Amino acid sequence: MPERETLERAKKDAREGKSPSTQAGEFVREELHHVREGKHGVRSTKQAIAIGLSKARRAGVDLPPPGEGHTEAQREQAERDLAAGATPHEPSPRRSRAVSKALKREGRSGASRNALSKQAKQAARGRSPQAQSRQAKCAAQTRRRRSTR
Asked: Is 14 within a domain?
């Protein structure tokens, strides 16, 4: 279950009209914090991101399933997460315990600054030149907005 602050930040983003991926970013951020504080581990940075996105979909963020470059199983799981977000229900205690126990055995380096940097660079390399340019313009605009505050 996501923390109350995370849900509030995501709802605030939704009220401000921000994109679903921005709202989901709050859940990914929370997941990285959990790994860093030692609550559990992850096998890779991608796993931490996937857990965060899954939590976001289950919390009701209207984040569409991934497109090309993802397996059919990943898309189906995302669709199940979206359906679970539409109708809230209690998670299975046994399954929840099993997942927690498995994650506790994993390492903590997946949420390190180095690992995140490596993952971001790898993701950028996979983008087209136009997409990279669009991303850079968006980042520059965000930097300008932050510097004026």
From this structure: yes
Place 59 in a pLDDT band, splitting at 50, 70 and 90. very high
Encode pLDDT of 89-111 as tens digits.
888 999 999 999 999 999 999 99
Q: What is the DSSP letter of 2?
A: -
Residue 75 makes CB contacts below 8 A (sequence gap 6+) with 65, 66
CA distance 102 to 80: 22
Give the structural domain span for 87: 4-111
Query: What does the pLDDT read at residue 149?
Result: 63
In a domain, 137, yes or no: no
Instruction: Compute the distance between CA of residue 125 and CA of residue 115 in angstroms, rounded to an integer.
Output: 15
The answer to whether the CB of 79 falls within 8 A of the CB of 106 is no
**Cα–Cα distance between 122 and 35 in angstroms, integer?**
21
